[in-house]
Amino acid sequence: MRNRECVNCGSTEFHQVENGWKCDYCGTLYLDSETITPQQKQPLYQPHQHKKRRINGLVAVVIIWVGLSLSYFIFKSDTSDSGDAVSYEPLDPEMTDSSTPKNFPGKWTQSIYESVKVATEHYHDDTEKYTFEGGSSYEELEKLVGKPDTVISWEKEDYGMPPRTQATWDKTSDGGYTENSISVTYEKNTMMIVDKDSY
């Protein structure tokens, strides 16, 4: 059968079996001894056909899974770089209590100061910019302690840092100065607190 060709794999190597011929490469069984051509009817037994379908199905599932995984990581990376995804740590003034009383300005207390969560800073080598996550919301803080006495603002990005504002409280509710001042720096776009200080 050297001049014959298997319609499944193209092999020309066959060996004779009872009532026909069998392809040495893929195992396809041909029951008659006529010349095998591409126009001939399909062989009766194709052992690798189901195996090929199963492999093709597995390959398709793996490709889809890899594609979805890459899409997730690219989307996650894009949202963290853009600063659109803002996650705030809530303020919980009752969660801490200090045994050392201090003279804080305005409505500030030790427990409010300690409950202010400073954001985690991330530097991105590819963009040479900083992003922040997990800090408390300045808007929520201002509702608790009132408007600051002094405000300093950085309107433009500098050294990869986004525009920021530093709010300082250093007066009592009746307008006198206190022993302790508190300053909080927040990112202007997200209003997330990125630094705090008491002095």
From TrEMBL:
The chain crosses the membrane at residues 55-75. Keywords: Membrane, Transmembrane, Transmembrane helix. This is Uncharacterized protein.
